Amino acid sequence: MTLQEFFNWAQPLLEKSGITNARQELFWLLEEWGGFAKTALLLKPQSVLEEALVLKLTEGIDKRAKRVPLQYILGKAEFLNWSFRVGPGVLIPRPETELLTHWAAANAVENCSVLEIGSGSGCLSIALALARPDLTITASDISSTALHYTRLNAGALLPPSARFHALFSDVFSHIEGKYQLILSNPPYLTAEDMLAIAPELTHEPSLALSPGEDGLALYRKIASQASDFLLPGGYIALEIGYNIYEPVLALFKNYQHIKTLHDYAHIPRVVIFQFP
């Protein structure tokens, strides 16, 4: 199969499956697995693809046509210019979470302790550790798969000197000590939201997407228990969904709301509170 024949076959197949940027995704697969530059189709359309590559591409295209996320197929996702390993069972990093990471990196007190609740792939905590090696960071998650990826990515990206460790915890169930900063991107899609999610999201862990009902279950737990784990004057910074801004503010009425960060669509996406 030539490069041109591959595109002639694969692009219509993906487009028929509802993938709007099929051509670009095919370039990404070819670049990752075959080392082809994007200009190859223009300059060398008759290049013959090796049989092993064709087989791998065919398997990947079949998965993508079933709307398996491209990041799962490639086994990685980009976050703040870092490449994180991902796979089924772990939430794929989103650009919205970069807002939370940027704020934490700019505002965490020097040499302070940080706790992340729900680390997933570890993208938030690890990116923070890379930006702020002075911090002592604990990344926690209830999912053994998520913790596997957190530890895998930490081992690949962080130096041995990093003050970083990951542990199992259902919110605060296995947390000890007090922290200057608590970070979390909890599952926040409502039960109604889950009825209309994109096909790709059905392949991601529902535990990381939605707690059901009104989407606020994890926020309630954090709001009711965080005071036992925060130092005086400490901060809580949370990512939120587009439709739960006011309810989250109400849950944290005993904390001082000091800042709201908006995403690229000007939707409230991160809320920051201070413990008295």
Task: Give a summary of the structure in a few sentences.
The protein is an alpha/beta fold and 276 residues long. It has helices at 3-16, 22-34, 40-43, 51-65, 70-74, 96-107, 123-131, 144-157, 191-194, 206-209, 217-225, 245-251; strands at 76-79, 82-85, 113-117, 136-141, 164-168, 179-184, 230-239, 256-262, 268-274.
Task: Report what the structure shows.
The radius of gyration is 21 Å and the shape is elongated. The strands form two sheets. It has a seven-stranded mixed beta sheet, with helices on one face. A two-stranded antiparallel ribbon has the order 1-2. The mean pLDDT is 95. The longest helix has 15 residues, at 51-65. With 276 residues, the protein is an alpha/beta fold. The protein has helices at residues 3-16, 22-34, 40-43, 51-65, 70-74, 96-107, 123-131, 144-157, 191-194, 206-209, 217-225, 245-251; strands at residues 76-79, 82-85, 113-117, 136-141, 164-168, 179-184, 230-239, 256-262, 268-274. It starts with a helix and ends with a strand. The protein folds into two domains: 3-66; 80-274, Rossmann fold, CATH 3.40.50.
User: What percent of residues adopt helix (DSSP H or I)?
Assistant: 25-40%
The outline comes out as: elongated
List the total number of helices: 12
* CATH level 3 topology of the largest domain: Rossmann fold
For the biggest β-sheet, the strand order reads 5-4-3-6-7-9-8
Name the CATH class of the largest domain.
Alpha Beta
Number of strands: 9
Write the layout of secondary structure elements.
Layout lengths: L2 H14 L5 H13 L5 H4 L7 H15 L4 H5 L1 E4 L2 E4 L10 H12 L5 E5 L5 H9 L4 E6 L2 H14 L6 E5 L10 E6 L6 H4 L11 H4 L7 H9 L4 E10 L5 H7 L4 E7 L5 E7 L2
Parallel strand pairs: 3-4, 3-6, 4-5, 6-7
Antiparallel strand pairs: 1-2, 7-9, 8-9
Helix pairs in contact: 1-4, 2-4, 6-7
